[in-house]
């Protein structure tokens, strides 16, 4: 049976938004697993998303001691035969694919955040790299974003980038 994932990162609540956008809440309720790649900023976001269902998350550079006590720097899980890793920061875009192949050998899917820039590439070693952007702070992007995908039969399917309404 496929596993539906919601990917989010860089929620920055309450600095960039007072609360999570409704689009994120709806997607979290529909997901089998919520993956958050750091920069929650406030523990209330961890509690809210964790109350929506299973969660795989890491802390980011803007997360304080309370979140760092509750979350790892790197999270890993094997989901439907897909080896998943989550980290907040991967460094500069230039050379990212080769660096991540070296840093995460035995990983099929790496979810990351930090830049607020959506990213979807495949490394020379075959690892899929996904950054969902930010649902609350678009920075230089045309819209706030999140991602959904399905894992099934050791494969990554139906990766979709979604615009998030802040209204």
From TrEMBL:
SUPFAM superfamilies: Metallo-dependent phosphatases. Its cofactor is a divalent metal cation. It comes from the Bacteria. GO terms for molecular function: hydrolase activity; metal ion binding. Residues 4-152 form the Calcineurin-like phosphoesterase domain. Its EC number is 3.1.4.-. Signal peptide: none annotated. InterPro entries: Calcineurin-like_PHP_lpxH (IPR024654), Metallo-depent_PP-like (IPR029052), Phosphodiesterase_MJ0936/Vps29 (IPR000979). Pfam families: Metallophos_2. Keywords: Metal-binding. Belongs to the metallophosphoesterase superfamily. YfcE family. This is Phosphoesterase. It comes from Microbacterium testaceum.
């Amino acid at each position: 049976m496929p596993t539906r994932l919601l990917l989010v990162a860089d929620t920055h609540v309450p600095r960039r938004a007072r609360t999570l956008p409704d689009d994120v809440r709806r997607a979290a309720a529909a997901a089998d697993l919520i993956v958050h790649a750091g920069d929650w900023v406030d523990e209330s976001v961890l509690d809210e998303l964790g109350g929506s269902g299973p969660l795989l998350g890491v802390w980011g550079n803007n997360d304080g001691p309370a979140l760092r006590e509750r979350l790892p720097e790197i999270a890993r899980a094997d989901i439907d035969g897909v080896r998943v890793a989550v980290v907040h920061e991967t460094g500069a875009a230039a050379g990212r694919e080769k660096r991540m192949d070296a840093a995460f050998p035995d990983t099929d899917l790496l979810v990351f955040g930090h830049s607020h820039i959506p990213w979807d590439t495949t490394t020379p070693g075959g690892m899929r790299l996904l950054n969902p952007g930010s649902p609350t702070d678009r920075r230089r992007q045309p819209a706030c974003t999140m991602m959904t995908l399905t894992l099934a039969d050791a494969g990554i399917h139906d990766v979709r980038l979604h615009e998030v309404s802040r209204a």
